[in-house]
Recover the amino acids of this structure.
């Protein structure tokens, strides 16, 4: 008789939610929850963007607008503050992502994800775009597995409006369809993704007056050369050269050399 025992789905969900609520309780107990939410990563930037979406104007933040748009929707429909809406979306998206992960890979993987990725728990309880992005990607993968291609492309396109790397999921879907030599589905998939992209850019232009404001701001902040792509390992090589030069300058300083010799 096999000694292996499958994790019950209900136990997995209960364990996942308990881990999130324990983190929330600890932050509430120490009185640091509000402070941590306001200071965590890009939370303030997302809330600022949601205010731009609600009131109009040219944003100063470079993020894509999918997550801030959902924050603005929760703010307006539920009469929440921007930070409260942000945390609620992150928590719900995290639990939904866990359920999708269970459907895709099983309960053991879903539970193990908590242990190997503690940062995920933080993002789930203090906010971030990552839970929503992962949730949409997993929904896209599950839809593709069920051969619901249009739903898969839709979720991947929505994920791209949250974080730009979602475009690689769209490319992967199209390449898989091309590999099946079913030319109709790849053509419709590309058309659907482009249509969603055009609607998104038209909406951004209507709000801010600049359809490519996110790309332009990304180019001046997160993309130092002004381009999102480069040859493989080039950034790593530049970092290693810069580190070597910095160490060389430190080594050549008399005080540093004297401290090594003494």
């Amino acid at each position: 008789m096999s000694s292996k025992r499958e994790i019950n789905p209900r136990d997995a969900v209960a364990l996942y939610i308990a881990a999130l609520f324990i983190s929330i309780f600890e932050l509430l107990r120490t009185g640091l929850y509000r402070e941590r939410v306001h200071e965590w990563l890009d939370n303030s930037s997302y809330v600022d963007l949601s205010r731009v979406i609600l009131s109009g104007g040219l944003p100063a933040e470079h993020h894509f607008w999918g997550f801030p748009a959902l924050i603005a929707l929760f703010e307006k429909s539920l009469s929440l503050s921007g930070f409260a809406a942000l945390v609620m979306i992150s928590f719900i998206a995290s639990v939904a992502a866990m359920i999708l992960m269970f459907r895709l890979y099983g309960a053991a993987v879903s539970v193990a994800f908590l242990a190997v990725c503690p940062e995920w728990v933080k993002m789930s309880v203090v906010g971030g775009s990552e839970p929503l992005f992962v949730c949409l990607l997993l929904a896209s993968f599950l839809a593709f597995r069920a051969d619901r291609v249009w739903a898969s492309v839709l979720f991947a396109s929505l994920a791209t409006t949250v974080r730009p790397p979602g475009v690689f999921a769209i490319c992967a879907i199209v390449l898989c369809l091309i590999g099946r030599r079913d030319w109709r589905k790849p053509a419709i998939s590309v058309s659907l993704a482009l249509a969603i992209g055009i609607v998104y850019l038209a909406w951004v232009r209507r709000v801010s007056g600049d359809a490519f404001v996110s790309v332009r701001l990304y180019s001046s902040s997160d993309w130092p050369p002004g381009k999102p792509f480069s040859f493989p390992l080039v950034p790593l090589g530049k970092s290693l050269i810069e580190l070597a030069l910095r160490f060389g300058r430190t080594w050549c300083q008399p005080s540093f050399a004297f401290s090594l010799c003494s």
